[in-house]
Amino acid sequence: xxxxxxxxxxxxxxxxxxxxxxxxxxSYLLGNRQPTRTLGAVNPEYFSEGEGADFVAFxxxxxxxxGLSIESEQPVVGMWQGNLEPxxxxxxxxxxxxxxxxARLLGRRYNQESVMLFQPDPKxxxxxxxxxxxxxxxxxLVFGEMLRQGLPGGRYMAGRIEIVDVAGESGSNVRALAxxxxxxxxxxxxxxxxxxxxxxDY
Length: 202
Hints:
The chain is α+β, with helices and mostly antiparallel strands. It has a single domain (12-196), classed as ACT domain (Alpha-Beta Plaits, 2-Layer Sandwich), CATH 3.30.70.260. It has four helices and eight strands. It has helices at 50-65, 96-109, 136-146, 171-181, and strands spanning 19-25, 69-80, 83-94, 114-120, 126-131, 153-157, 160-165, 185-196. An eight-stranded antiparallel β-barrel has the order 1-3-2-6-7-5-8-4, surrounded by four helices. The longest helix is centred in the first third of the chain and has 16 residues, at 50-65. It is globular and about 45 Å long. The two termini are 13 Å apart.
């Protein structure tokens, strides 16, 4: 599997200090549900009840067990291969190995294809791109265009679209999306890792 650091700066997993790492994950499974194509069709209360609430509680329980602290958590709308789903963006503070362990637990317990981790670091090879001041209607337009730009996934949160890459490979595609809307792109360098069920990470 690719990592944000292959051939570059030291991995966040090499750190012996506590750091802040963002986890992007969900408990949502498409299963027999109809695919969701617009933001308005995504349940905004998903994490307040049932499996979504269980997901949030599990994150907090395991964080305590692993010696981690939750700095912030925010419901977002995730997009993968054209389908939209409720997801959670969680900033976790702790030892990198323990944060990654939490991400693996989430992926395995909730049978997810992938879980994303991103640690801001000026020396990182990956990037987190933010297209700012984006309305819900504009986000629907961008999500529809992303696959044509070779971008399989991203998320919408607090009026912005976020897209991460592993080694800076997506910059021109993200800027093309921003140009479509006449918006700005903010870029944060860092270490990106996608844990994958298919690759045996959990």
